[in-house]
Each structure stands twice: as structure tokens, then as C-alpha cells.
Amino acid sequence: MKLLNNTALIIAFFFLCSYNSFGQFDLDFVKHLSKNQFADEHLAYLESSALPVDSMAYFKAKYFIEYENDSMFFKQCDSAFELLSMDTLFLRYLDNYFLKKEENYREEWFIRRNEICQKDSAGAQFCYHLALNPSLSDTTKVPTLLRDDFIRLAKVYKKKPVVALLLSAVLPGLGELYIGNLRASIAKFGSQTIFGLQIVESIYFVGLIHPLSFVNIGFFSAFYVANIVGSYRDTKTKKHDLKNQFFFHVSDYYASMYPASIY
Amino acid sequence: MDLSATMANELIENCGSEKPKSRSFLKLSKSTSKYNPFTYLAGGLLFVYQNVLSEQISANCNFEISCSEYTKRCINEYGLFKGTLVGLHQLSCCSPTIYKDYCEFQISENGKVKNEVVK
Amino acid sequence: MFRIITLLCIQLQFINYCYSQDSLTIQLLALEKDIFYSTSDTVKNSLMVQKMDLMMKNKSDNDLILKNCKRIDDQFISDSVEKSRFLWNASVLAYLENDLYYALHTIKEYQHVSNDSSLTCESLRFFIYSNYDTEKTKIIVADLIQRDSIFEAYECYSNAQAYEVRQIQFKKALSYILPGSGMIVNGNWAKGLLSTSLNSASGLAIYYLISNHLYINSLAWGSNLIMKFYIGNINLTEKLINQKQVFRQKKLAKKCELSINECLLKYPINYKFSSQGF
Prior knowledge:
Order of helices and strands of chain C: HHHHHHHHHHHHH
Number of strands of chain C: 0
Shape of chain C: elongated
Oligomer: heterotrimer
Distance between the termini of chain A: 51 Å
Radius of gyration of chain C: 30 Å
Helix content of chain A: over 70%
Distance between the termini of chain C: 39 Å
Strand content of chain A: under 5%
Number of helices of chain A: 14
């Protein structure tokens, strides 16, 4: 006890405190850990590096994106704001990445993206904003390979669920045809026609008050009402699905045209 | 667990596979539906279909969540009337070529259409 | 007082360092750094083997260890003892992770390098080959039994794996002729009778519809009911035969479990660690 003087004790304390944080930060080593998918070692290395707060957040943001932990990425995002705005390759990667993600994460990212840098007049970010309110007049602003998707989206966006509902009530399957679901409309029209013919035949040969007629009428009316409700719902979901498909294609297109990466 | 014991377990597991689980009865979450006897009737019919009849017709739905399971979930989510109608709507769409009406990202690896009950 | 507080702080830091969950990760990170910065392939691979050993000792997840293991190129391990030790561990790991081809490759390499024909090695070979080659498994088992009769447990397992339900074709043919009868012969009475009754009821219903001149109804219901029930009966018979086979195989294998455990107690299969340590 007497051998230990105050200075030695303090040095020992700081040595143990800083055990995890000595050594220089090596980006190549981080790339190596990332390439080999050593998640635990990667995080341990970042945490043991004596990096400034913003750089630490920046590298952690990259780490969380690599292992698809989106909520943790957003937590790091604010502190890494400036460094992110300078890393165009990573920003491009993030645009492509979030276009394929769930709607809430996608929205959150593009709100932050607007804060990081101004809207482009081209690129994935621009396509995202166009697709939020698609209009046929904007078709020329979209890259040629994505135009078909955009036109389909813009056309379906104009369709009204109430119209689909009314059309389905007039003729089964017409509502589905209105939103472009050809196969569904054929299946519905075909099944309803067969049920109709069965009803006519059963009423003609065995009369209305007969179990067979009841069964046929029951099936016909249940499917008839279900188709009306379904057309209304399908019109809504179709817009959402086509928008997602457009985002998928935008992501793939920009990923192939302008290669982007995390590091 | 000891490594030898793990290896013995692995060996036994590799011989044959587990018996498929039977599907459960309708689980109601909404208090409004709990007092409707027809909800239980629909649930019972779906239960019988899923556990007894579906294997008799080698049912192979074109949707990832099969039409009967989807109807069950819809009844649970929207109540008997709307749930049945939404389920019947999927049933009327269920044909082998239906995947062509859906976007690429909605088709799963086994060629079935991904579907979910929107909450 | 100041010294006591400082010493307590040092002690806390030391305990934190030694016993924290991250200490393994830090050690692994240190090894990974050495691997990354080393320029010689021999050193690199030797460090990778060390890392693998450390993970095995600390019981890390098998998939993570196997991922590390697959990076190692055994050509660069110059020491034949180390090399055979690595190949042994790799084959055990690959077997546990169901990576059959890697397990086959490493066990072959292991035998080539070490010329090991011990009972433990043959036992591991049996484990690996049992999922791949039944003929080879039989040869291994016969050899093992010759050397020690305790390995009859493995023969019991091989027999369980080779079990086949009798009269498969006959049962299938029956289901074509009389719906449900194939299932009844297979032992699934309830399902078979239900199938027979559903098929005959739908047949009768269609007959009733035709006799009442309800041709559209008979066509619509006929294609929906009779065809589905009839084809369903054939598919279900096939499925139930397979299920029965798997169930019997599993039951027979379970019977051998106790004696297999005895074998493994006598000739345990374990990872091989370096005697030098690091």
C-alpha cells in the first residue's frame, strides 16, 4: 500500500478507464469488419475509438444502416448531420435504401434528407417527391426507363374508389377493370355469371323455394356484395402498391446508374 | 449442453420432421364481436374447414395468407360482416394467374401473392 | 482516504474489464486487428485459428464460429497437428450447423492430414455421412461394430433411417379406384372414411342434379366438388403415407437415442483445443 503513491494510482485508474479507447481510428479496418460482417467487433471498434461526437455518430449511422437497424440510424442521424451532408455517395445509398423500406421510415428519411440538402431537380429524391402527388404532366421529368411505371401510377392515382364501387354494383368485375386488374375482373365476372346461370336454371327447374336455389342465391349475393366492397378497397390499395413498386424501380434504377455505397 | 449430447440430438432431429401443427380457432379481440353468436358460427366453420376439409381438397391457395386464414383474421379485425366480405373478396380473386395483377415486390419467392390484414 | 477511493475505482474498472460481457468482443477485436494488419498469410491464418478457438471456448454462436472458420485457408497452416486440429473442429462445427458439404470436405481433409482411424473419428464420420450416403454409412457402421459392439446403436439408427412403409404403390392405386380406401389401408380410418363419404355424397348430389336436368348446376358443382375431393383424396393419401414413414422413422430413431448417448459417453466427440493455449 505504501509503495503506491498518488500519481501511480491516478495513472493506473486512467489507463483502465481508457483501455477501450486507445489506438488510431483506421477506416480500412472498419471496411474490413464491414466486408466480413463482424457486427460485434465492428461496434466494439467504433465504441473504443477516440472519435469526436459527430464522427462517432456518423460511423455508427453507417453501422446501423449496414445491419438494417433503421430506428437506431435515425437516433445517430441528428448528431452526424454535417458529415452526412458532405458524403454524397452515402446519401445516394440511403435514398436507394429507404425507397425500399416501410412507409414511415421512408417518410422520416426524406424529411431529414430535405433538411440535409436542398431538393434535387433529378435523382431518387426528386422521383420520391414527384410520386407523392403524381401527375401525367410530370412524366417527362422522370427518367425514360421509369416512365411506364410513373404513367401507370399517375393514371391509377386519378381513379376514385367510389366510382369503382358503383361500377362493381352495375356489373361484377367492372370495378376491378376500372383500376386495371384484368385477371381479377375476369375471375369475378366469370364466377358471378356462372352463379347467375345456376340461379336461373334452379328456379326454372326446381322452383324458388328449394334448398338448391337458396344455396345458389346465397352464394351469388354474398360474392356480389363482397366484390363491391372489395373494389372500393382495391382502388385504395392499388395506389399504395403502385407507388411502392415505383419506389422499388426508382431505387434499382439509381443503384445501377449511379453506384453508391456505405463506405 | 454438452457437445456430444448436442450432436446426438442433431442426429435424432435429422431423422424425420415435426408433425404439422393444427390451426387455431378464431381469436376475438373486439368486445363488440364477442356477443355475436354468428361470429362463433363463422369461426367454427372456418376451423372445421382448415382442420378437416382443406386437406381433403388439397387446398393450395394463391395467396401467402390463405383465403380461410385471411377471412379469420379479417373477422377478428373488422368484425363479422365486413370481415366475411373482405375474405370472400379475396376468395373470388384467388386464381392461379392472379399474381399478374400484382406488383413484383408483392410476389413471394414461392410465387404466392403477399397479403396482409390492414389495421 | 484519497488512496482508498482511487483504489476502489481501479478495482471497479478492473472488474468491469474482466467480467463485462464485452470482454470477449474486445479480445476478438484485438485478434481481428492483428489479422488485418499482419502481412504474412501464415500468421493471418494462425491468428484466425486462434480467434476460432477463443470463440469455441467461450461458446459463441456456432454460425459465427463457422463464418470465421470458413475464412481460414488450411494450406497456410504449416503445422500438421494444428492443421488436423482445425479440420476436426471445422467438421464438427459444420455438422452442427448442417453445412453438409463443408463437413464432408473437412472430414476428408482431416483423415488425409492426420491418418486418424480412431473410433471417435469414425464416429464423427458416421454422423456426417448419415445424412448423405446410406451405403457408406453402412460400411462405417459395420467397421465400428467390428471394433466395439457398443456401436450397434448406430446400426439401430441406420435401420431407423432406412425404414419404409409397406405397400406404398398398392395404397396409392387403391386411392385411385375407391377414394379414401388408400388412407384406410394406411391406418388413417377417420380421414379415409370422411374422404369416401365426401366423394360419394358429392357424386350423389351430381347424380341428383343431372336427373333433374340441372346441367349447369351439375357442371359447376361437379367441377368444384367431385374433382377437388377426388384429386384431394389421391394427394392426401400420398401425404399421409409420407407422414407415416417420417413418424415411424423418428419413433425408431428415438428408441436408439439412449444407446447413442452411451456410445458418445464412451467415445465423446469434442472440439480439439491447442495444448499451448494463447
